């Protein structure tokens, strides 16, 4: 048995998202005698709110580095990455997004013996705007020997655009259920911070504010719920890549005359407290891979209502661990919320069943064993 040496390569901005939690926690928990993992992040020098380094320290990641990425193809960035491969004798590059797919492809050209693999955390297929860009990306990806799909739905999309089935492995996201426990959060602190009555019913969503989250539908649902339950509060937790995105949503809430009930928290790192303040988690996304926020909500005992997109139906068992709805169907979503709000029995049932299901099926320790086997297989190392 020999040590397998890996670069986890990712580009993001500000506080990142679900994939970053998976990357950092995995790197922290790998058997360090068997695996050397260099977590490498591309950082826009203009991103003065970049927080991944602090997250890496918090998780206890032993080897973390940031490389400045100044433009679409930054040769200085490429050469610095190449020097890291030489310095640390890396044999696997694991890429996690569009930009690092390009870098991984070029690094493979410079280092023919290095194996490059990718994880498809989320896909938007057949976009008219990005069709040429996607075709180029797919062409590069198809040269890689292995692809991890975070859900069966993602695998199906990959097969649709021509990936070979023998190169794809489905590996669900997972969370550390010993950390994500409701009793570890302080929901009272959040309610006090935002002046929410202790008796108010709180509905929230967590994630990067972007078009695919379909937050206008979230606001339409909120408007409908407030007609029956005017004291309900709605938390939108996260921020967008630009201030204009958040500003447009705030303006929309104001025009709908519901801004008094909508709380934009911005990016938060105290998510245990946030989840503990929620009575219900709502996700109105147009597309998803396998969202960590749904896993976290279920682990925290927060009932979930979500659109049935991507891998979400693989997480939620309809009517048992949550409720699934049609994309954009604000009437159906509103009725699902009302059904839960009006039944303490249903709230308790979803809370209990959701927690049990996540512990049983999405254990991080089990996922770690599976990803380590994948690394050994691709490196040709004995397990």
Question: Can you offer a commentary on this structure?
Answer:
This protein folds into 2 domains: 4-174 and 363-379, Glycogen Phosphorylase B (Rossmann fold), CATH 3.40.50.2000; 182-361, Rossmann fold (3-Layer(aba) Sandwich). The strands form 2 sheets. It has a 7-stranded parallel β-sheet, sandwiched between helices. It has 15 helices and 13 strands. Strand 6 (146-149), helix 6 (152-160) and strand 7 form a beta-alpha-beta unit. The radius of gyration is 21 Å and the shape is globular. The longest helix is centred in the C-terminal third of the chain and has 18 residues, at 344-361. The protein is α/β, with parallel strands linked by helices and 383 residues long.
**CATH class of the largest domain, please?**
Alpha Beta
Strand order across the biggest sheet?
3-2-1-4-5-6-7
Mean pLDDT: 94
Instruction: Tell me the series of helices and strands, N- to C-terminal.
Output: EHEHEHEHEHEHEHEHEHEHEHEHEHHH
Secondary-structure-based class equals: alpha/beta
Distance between the termini: 7 Å
CATH architecture of the largest domain: 3-Layer(aba) Sandwich
- Rg over CA atoms, rounded to whole Å, is 21 Å
Overall outline: globular
Say how many strands there are. Answer: 13
> Biggest β-sheet, characterized?
7 strands, parallel
* Helical run tally: 15
Q: What share of residues is helical?
A: 40-55%
């Amino acid at each position: 048995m020999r040590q397998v040496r890996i670069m986890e390569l990712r580009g993001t901005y500000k506080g990142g998202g679900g994939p970053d939690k998976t990357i950092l926690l995995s790197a922290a928990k790998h058997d360090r005698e068997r695996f050397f993992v260099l977590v490498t992040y591309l950082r826009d020098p203009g991103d003065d709110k970049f927080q991944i380094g602090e997250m890496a320290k918090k998780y206890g990641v032993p080897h973390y580095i940031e490389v400045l990425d100044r433009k679409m193809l930054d040769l200085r960035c490429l050469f610095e990455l190449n020097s890291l491969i030489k310095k640390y004798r890396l044999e696997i590059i694991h890429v996690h997004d569009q930009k690092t797919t390009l870098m991984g492809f070029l690094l493979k050209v410079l280092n023919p013996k290095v194996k490059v693999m990718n994880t498809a955390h989320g896909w938007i297929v057949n976009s008219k705007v990005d069709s040429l860009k996607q075709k180029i990306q797919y062409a590069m990806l198809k040269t890689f020997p292995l692809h991890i799909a975070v859900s069966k739905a993602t695998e199906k999309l990959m097969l649709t655009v021509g990936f070979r089935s023998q190169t794809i492995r489905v590996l669900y996201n997972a969370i550390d259920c010993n950390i994500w426990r409701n009793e570890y959060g302080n929901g009272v602190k959040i309610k006090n911070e935002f002046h929410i009555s202790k008796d108010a019913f709180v509905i929230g969503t967590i994630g990067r504010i972007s078009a695919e989250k379909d937050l206008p539908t979230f606001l339409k649902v909120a408007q409908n719920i407030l007609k029956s339950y005017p004291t309900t509060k709605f938390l939108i937790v996260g921020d967008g890549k630009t201030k204009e995105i958040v500003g447009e949503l705030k303006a929309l809430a104001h025009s709908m005359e519901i801004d008094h009930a909508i709380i934009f928290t911005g990016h938060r790192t105290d998510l245990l407290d946030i989840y503990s303040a929620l009575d219900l988690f709502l996700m109105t996304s147009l597309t998803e891979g396998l969202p960590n926020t749904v896993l976290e909500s279920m682990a925290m005992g927060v009932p979930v209502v979500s659109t049935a997109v991507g891998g979400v139906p693989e997480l939620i068992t309809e009517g048992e661990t949550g409720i699934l709805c049609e994309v954009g169907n604000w009437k159906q979503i509103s009725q699902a919320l009302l059904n839960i709000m009006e039944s303490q029995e249903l709230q308790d049932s979803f809370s209990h069943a959701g927690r049990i299901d996540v512990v049983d099926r999405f254990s991080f320790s089990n996922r770690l064993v599976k990803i380590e086997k994948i690394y050994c297989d691709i490196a040709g190392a004995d397990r």
